[in-house]
Hints:
Number of helices of chain B: 5
Largest interface: A-B, 58 and 48 residues
Largest sheet of chain A: 16 strands, antiparallel, barrel
Oligomer: heterodimer
Order of helices and strands of chain B: HEHEHHEHEE
Number of strands of chain A: 20
Helix content of chain B: 25-40%
Strand content of chain B: 15-25%
Strand order of the largest sheet of chain B: 3-2-4-1-5
Distance between the termini of chain A: 29 Å
Shape of chain A: globular
Radius of gyration of chain B: 18 Å
Shape of chain B: globular
Structural class of chain A: mainly beta
Radius of gyration of chain A: 21 Å
Amino acid sequence: MHSGNKKFLALLVVGALGLTAPSIRAEEQDGLSFRGSGFLTLAAGAVLNNGPAQNASGYHCPCFISDYGEAGVYEKGGLHWRPDSKLGLQGSALYGRYSVTTQVVWRGVDSVFDMEWLYGDIKLNNNLTLQAGRKRLPLFYYSESQDVGFAIPWAHLPPQLYGWEIINYNGANLLYKDQWGDWSSGMNVFGGNENLKDSPYWKLYNGKNSRTDSHWSNIAGAYFTLGNEWLEGRLLYVQSDIQNTILAPVLQASPTTRQKIYGASFNIDYSQWVVRSEFLYINRKESYGGDHAELLGAGYRLGKWLPMATYARYRQSVTLDQTMAEAHDGISLLLRYDLTTSSDVKVQFDHWKNRAQAPFFAATPATANPVGQANLLTLSYDMVF
Amino acid sequence: MPIQYIKIFCVLLYCAGSLAAQTASAGELLVVVGNNSAVGSLDKTQVRNIFLGRVSSFPGGQTATPVDQPESSPLRDEFYVKVANLSAAEVKARWAQLAFTGRGEPPRVADNSKEIKKILNATPGAIGYIKKSDIDDSVKIVFVVE
Lengths: 385, 146
């Protein structure tokens, strides 16, 4: 049997075991308690339309980038399960106000366990928690839970917005939550650094066999949330220094520049209606220019079913030559069914439309057929345990 | 976008509407704390925020420890639909968003109402929900779910 298929079978076994397991395991001894939990996504997708064979980065296209940060790409030809399938295991040790938590995630895209989270946690009081260690960078509303398929409405997050090279950081953060009248409020203030070796994201641009190291330093940011029974808003600001070094095929280092990231999201759960919206602007005027991205999704709950349609848009600003800017739109149609209170199945159709003036991911500079002209059908199963 | 995909989606949408599950009513639900608890009455917003992990404490400042009915219990679905307009699965998805990102621990899950009452009297700050017919002297009502 092919090793990839063996791993897929192993994931199925873990999934079956998880179905029969209690949702949270807890053992307590002398005030010290341990908790274990996990999540699983099994996804398979196929690109439905035809096009040229291979783009300049070495991907068979038409192809659909479902996970920029991990270079998860559905390529043309057959059914692919690697881009979105994953297994996460989380363990925590708790002692009074203190705890230590680690989370490892196995992804089909690279078939290895990565330690995504490792942090210590001190509850200063009922409103404030101080954390330090390795965590997810909370750039977007679903950034921190992007691996947990059951926690997000879609089969994969809209890549027009959720498409950046850095997804983790090492540092510290202060969490706040409280109730203000009929509103619940929350804040997260964070800072740190990330040095990512051999960035998967940059392989999408520089080629499958390239090697690029990415550095985000002096990261400082905060987000603020406010919600009531049916509405939740989130505002974010992050700034950092950014520097990339291409090590292969040709050594090339960019200068260190400053970036400023502004984000806003507004979510509605009113009666049976579900609305998700998110807006992003990145000021990178010290390097190429900037980035704008938005998404708007609306669905209607019918018992255990959720049909939902989402539109997402990405536009790049390039100061020197706007004709070279990246631009694409995405439309997705989703049908989600909650199998149990801990598992779901999703069917999602995605259409990715390239809007760039210049050929982006072209097979050759002369053939303007980008990765973006893709239709993808994905079937996924998510669970938490 | 190809017309056939829109047609397929519409057919799936129609099937979803036809098969939509109905939420069963399981009688009057009461939110309760232990008889010795200092917690007075709560409003719907306070109960919702405690059970969705949006706050960690009661209005008086005491740490709140919410206790859920088991996943198989229809009381659980009824409670969250009436208090938060969310199904038990949606609530679990929101807790997954918090629990796997270091922003909270989901409520402790009891086997049944009898165990909930036992936990309420053994754990300071514990709060749960049970049917009116399961009320006895060991618990104090802080909110009536309507």
